[in-house]
Amino acid sequence: MKIIHCSDLHLDSKMKSNLDGKKAKERRDEILITYQNMVKYATENEVKIILIAGDMFDKKNITVKAKNIVLDSINSHPEIDFIYLKGNHDEISFIEDIENIPSNLKLFNSKEWTTYKYGKITISGIEFGELDSYEIYKSLMLNKSDINIVTLHGQESNYDAKDKAEIINLKELKNKNIDYLALGHIHTFKQGKLDTRGIYCYSGCLEGRGFDECGEKGFVLLEIDEEKSKITSKFIPFAGRHLYEIEVDVTGTSTTLDVENKIDEKLKDIEKEALIKIILTGKVEIDSERDIAYLEKKYKNLYYFAKIYDETSLKIDYMTYENDVSLKGEFIRLVLEQKLSEEEQRKIITTGIKALSGEEIN
Fold it and tell me: Is 83 helix (H, G, I), strand (E, B) or coil?
């Protein structure tokens, strides 16, 4: 049997933290399309179950379009069971609004463990909220002879924490006859050993939504051999668009063109459809010239989205300006005498040098 483990789809996210209204809508639509493509992948590869480990949606009030797309994907694929565990972003209203819940949409609750059985394969889950962690872990009972998949949504830890609704204590799940612990909440693929028998896995999200979600995104494909009681898992990269955070060391550059060449070298293998965040680092001379607005405009025209952050520091030879009688020397000494952070010094000196040189200040 084949099973897709996915989570944190966050369908209908606003997507407005970096993007304008038009592109935010495009990205919302793209995330819905990626979800539909995953369902298509399931049909083409004879996947029998799509296990969604929380946060299918991003907020309480979802659009009619998003709700209809999800319901249609479930109703039009009766050969696939959609097993859906609510996460901390999901709202029960999505289910309550459905007049007739499709028979192939399987749900969990927060009162007790629910188990769905497929031959030797069991899929068990519980939603956090009503029971405390002690009751949750104590009440999980699995048969040793079954192939046991357990799904939860929360932050993995080896210890309990104050926020028990979001902490998954891996120690308490050891030696429970779990073969595969399907987790949601962390937006990056992560897999590790649970105990001598099983593993735990975060599938990550289907599409990155911000620059804290860079890297490959997708889902996990499980292939289960019931005769051998064996599970093999494989991460399937599936995002339609990627996000990158790129550090560019511009030490030694003195002009905007120098910086541009350094950036171009770093970006040569990145597709133009990507969203990129460029962070300039390194030490630069006081008199070096960098027009960030110009560079940002250039790369916004080349890529789907681009943002540049100047985190360089100034390479200052304090002795050079100790006895400098020029206006520039007087200005730099004055700034250096103040109790300012290195970042504040850089911004003030850079702006001041531009002003003294007659350059436009952005």
Answer: strand
Share above pLDDT 70 across residues of the chain, in percent, rounded to a whole number:
91
The CA distance from 217 to 208, in Å, is 7
Q: How far apart are CA 84 and CA 51, in angstroms?
A: 6
Q: Rounded mean pLDDT of 141-145?
A: 97
Is 122 in contact with 148 (CB distance < 8 Å)? Answer: yes
Give the list of residues 6+ apart from residue 357 with CB closer than 8 angstroms, or none.
none
Cα-based angle 27, 91, 52 (whole degrees, multiple of 5): 65
Cα separation, 170 vs 114, in Å, equals 19
Residue 141 or 359, more confident: 141
Read off the pTM: 0.86
Q: Find the domain containing 311 and state its range.
A: 243-356
160-174 confidence digits (pLDDT tens): 544 444 789 999 999
Residue 261 has pLDDT above 60, yes or no: yes
Q: Domain check: are 135 and 197 in the same one? A: yes
Structural tokens at position 73: 């994907």
Q: Which of 186, 207, 237 is the last residue of a domain?
A: 237
Q: Which of 183, 206, 237 represents a domain boundary (last residue)? A: 237
Considering the domain architecture, whether residues 201 and 254 belong to the same structural domain is answered as: no
Q: How distant, in Å, are the alpha carbons of 118, 148, 149, 224, 287 from that of 122? A: 6, 5, 6, 12, 67
Give the whole-angstrom CA distance, residue 214 versus residue 66. Answer: 24
pLDDT tens digits, one per residue of 99-120: 788 999 999 999 999 999 999 9
Neighbours of 121 (CB within 10 A): 22
Q: How far apart are CA 160 and CA 128, in angstroms?
A: 14
Q: Give the span between the Cα atoms of 145 and 140, in whole angstroms.
A: 15
